[in-house]
Specification:
By secondary structure, the chain is mainly α. The protein has a domain at about 5-75: Orthogonal Bundle (Arc Repressor Mutant, subunit A). About 50% of the residues lie in helices and about 10% in strands. It contains 6 helices and 3 strands, in the order αβααββααα. The chain has helices at about 5-15, 20-35, 35-55, 75, 80-85, 90-100; strands spanning about 20, 55-60, 65. A 3-stranded antiparallel β-sheet has the order 1-3-2. β2 and β3 form a beta hairpin. α1 (about 5-15) crosses α2 (about 20-35). The longest helix has 17 residues, at about 35-55. The N and C termini lie far apart (about 80 Å).
Length: about 130
Amino acid sequence: MAKSLLDIAYDYIEKSPESVSFAELWAYVCKEAGLDEKAAEAKVGQFYTNLTLDGRIVILKNNRVDLKKRHMYEEYHIDMKDAYDDIPTDETETAEEEKSLSGEIITDESSEYEPEEENEDKDSYR
C-alpha cells in the first residue's frame, strides 16, 4: 500500500534533526511520491492545508515545519488578538462600524432619499 503524501512528510520531518522549510519538505514529498510538476502544482494547496490540520505537525515562523512534540505550545501558538493588532484601521471606518454594531442607523448624506413630489391630482393617470 502506497503512503499518503502526509505520511511521507511526517516520516521525513521525524528523521530530520531540526525543523525543515516547507519548500524543502514539499520537494522531498514530490520526489518520493513521483509527482511531476503539473501534479505537484495541483496538489500543493491541499497538501499544505492537510499539513496544518495534522495534529502531529506544526508550522513555525518563516514557514518552517516540525513535529509538535518537539516544541512548547508558546513556540507555535498564534494569539489572534496579536495578529489583528497589526492591522491599521481608519478611525472613521472604526467609528461607523461601532455605531453599526450598537444598532445606530448610519446614513450616507450624499445619497439621501428624496421622495418624488406627489401629484396633486391623484385621480388622474399619466
